[in-house]
Amino acid sequence: MIKLLSTLAAATLCLTASVAEPAGFGFVDVPADPEGPTMRGAVWSPCAMPPQDMVVGRTTLPGVKDCPIAGDRLPLVVISHGRGGDFIGHHDTAETLADAGFIVAAISHPGDTVSDMSRSGDL
């Protein structure tokens, strides 16, 4: 039964992605307290405009920067990268979810990113 449900879920995601629109993309900065660093991140969303290639750091993404969100009252998915990652690390998943009608937010954890591991041992 679990295998059947997994197969159906995968098939549904594949079919949904095949008729999808490009993802909108925007940066977000989450301010910290006076002693903490700002968290940098991104938001992907459904978008009705033609995609373009966007360069984000060393990564090229398909999408539309600051595209008006296509839809209302959309579900939210929050992605938290693993140790030593960053907000762009799961962009392919975020793009697919946004194409399927979700708002997707991802942040980089200060001190536990690919470029800064200074706090990776802290809780």
Concise overview:
The protein is α/β, with parallel strands linked by helices and 123 residues long. Helices cover 21% and strands 31% of the residues. The chain has a 6-stranded mixed sheet, covered by helices on one side.
- Outline the biggest β-sheet: 6 strands, mixed
Question: What is the helix/strand order?
Answer: HEEEEEHE
Judged by helices, strands and strand pairing, the structural class is: alpha/beta
Low-confidence stretches: none
Q: How many separate domains make up the residues?
A: 1
Strand order of the largest sheet: 3-4-1-2-6-5
Write the layout of secondary structure elements.
Layout: H1 2-18, E1 23-30, E2 39-46, E3 52-56, E4 59-65, E5 76-80, H2 91-99, E6 103-107
Parallel strand pairs: 1-4, 5-6
Antiparallel strand pairs: 1-2, 2-6, 3-4
Can you give a write-up of this model?
With 123 residues, the chain is of the alpha/beta class. The chain has one domain (21-107). 21% of the residues lie in helices and 31% in strands. The protein has helices at residues 2-18, 91-99; strands at residues 23-30, 39-46, 52-56, 59-65, 76-80, 103-107. The chain has a 6-stranded mixed sheet with strand order 3-4-1-2-6-5, covered by helices on one side. β5, α2 and β6 (103-107) form a beta-alpha-beta unit. The mean pLDDT is 80.
